[in-house]
Amino acid sequence: MAKAAKAAWKRPGSPIGKTGPRKANPKYKQRSGQPWSKDEIKELKSLAKHNTPTGVISLKLKRPPAAISSKAQREGISLRPVNRSPYSRRATTR
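Predicted structure:
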């Protein structure tokens, strides 16, 4: 006689319904929803200028990546890498 499969949220190790330190207050969400200071905007501009990835910026500023990208768009800051071509233009060797 075969056992019936347990529901996903009842299985050990399932992330569904899990509580604990992983969901409590991760570093990138500590300042979520709070107003931006002028110093934070300056740091965002500086990090974006140095081609810092959005995920790293979110950890440094302790805000979600979506908040970083939306604030950058509102401020007119480009998060795209400066040193990359928009198209795949490799030099062909013939």
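Summary: The CA atoms of residues 4 and 88 lie 52 Å apart.
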